[in-house]
Design a protein that fits this description.
Layout lengths: L8 H7 L19 E2 L5 H9 L3 H8 L5 H9 L7 E6 L5 E8 L10 E8 L8 H15 L4 E7 L3 H9 L3 E5 L2 E7 L5 H42 L4 H4 L1
Parallel strand pairs: 4-5
Antiparallel strand pairs: 1-2, 2-3, 3-4, 5-7, 6-7
Helix pairs in contact: 2-4, 5-7
The protein binds coenzyme A (COA).
The site of coenzyme A has 23 residues, from helix 3, strand 4, helix 5, strand 5 and helix 6.
């Protein structure tokens, strides 16, 4: 092949024509601390689920679960086999919660993990649902599973949108839909990503715990001071 004539870098740029516009920057997604939960969080998990409206319970569980049924579900969570994780606000209330259920050991058939999640009504539309789902994808992948599965009511537009956007294949059967997301194999990078994310979420939780402690200490000091400032005998009358 004949050699092309030498061109200066500027001439080469000009010859290449107008530069293709750079791909749009991905939308800014702030980091959301998602923390793994353990049996000692059962009370907070129950509080989150019991606060869901009747309709949300229907969407989450596939039926309008009553308080007793929710309590039984929470009591039966298997934290050794499954993963339960969530997002805490500054008051350490669970504003988003997910349950990633793993197949029983030795279970025949496809090795899929099942996702179920919920976000408190006041915090919806801020990306928590999608972030919980991404977290589930990463953890299921790192546990060696090749599929993430969601069973949702077909009317659950938000959940199915999250699944579709992540690349899941959605199979609709009347009022119910199943979504299957193929997961890539885990890599060193995916393991490190999980390790770093979990560590940072743990630090965030500890900081929130400490800030709550400092807040209660300040309140207590304030109460003691106002007690001291009162006329002798007045505090006893209050
Ligand atoms: C499903 C649920 C977890 C989504 O939580 P969320 O934090 O609001 O979700 P996100 O903010 O990540 O939004 C995800 C997508 O759904 C869309 N969406 C949110 N609410 C929607 C609604 N009511 N209708 C249509 N789309 C909706 C969002 O616009 C977003 O799409 P986009 O990324 O293209 O903008 C939440 O609605 C919920 O808790 N529902 C009740 C329980 C439930 O249905 N659980 C799922 C059963 S497995």
């Amino acid at each position: 092949m004949p050699n092309a004539p030498e061109l200066s870098p500027a001439a080469r740029l000009e010859a290449a024509g107008p530069a293709a516009s750079p791909p749009p920057a991905p939308p800014f997604a702030p980091w959301i601390p998602i923390r793994s939960l353990s049996p000692r969080h059962r009370e907070r998990i129950a509080a989150h689920l019991l606060a869901l409206s009747e309709r949300d319970r229907y969407l989450r569980f596939g039926y309008a679960a009553g308080d007793a049924q929710i309590q039984r579900y929470v009591d039966g969570l298997d934290f050794d086999r499954d993963e339960v994780f969530g997002v805490f606000n500054r008051r350490l209330q669970l504003i988003a919660l997910a349950h990633l259920a793993f197949p029983q050991p030795g279970q025949p058939g496809p090795q899929a993990a099942e996702f179920g999640g919920s976000v408190v009504a006041a915090a919806r539309g801020r990306g928590y649902g999608a972030r919980l789902f991404e977290h589930a994808m990463l953890h299921a992948r790192n546990r060696g599973l090749d599929t993430l599965f969601i069973h949702a009511l077909s009317e659950n537009t938000a959940m199915l949108r999250i699944a579709r956007k992540a690349g899941a294949r959605v199979e609709r059967e009347g009022s119910e839909s199943d979504a299957y997301l193929k997961l890539p194999q885990d890599t060193l990078a995916s393991q490190v990503e999980q390790w770093v994310g979990d560590g940072a979420a743990e630090i965030d939780y500890r900081l929130k715990q400490q800030s709550r402690l400092v807040g209660s200490l300040i309140d207590a000091i304030g109460e003691v001071r106002s007690g001291i400032g009162k006329q002798p005998g007045q505090a006893a009358k209050d």
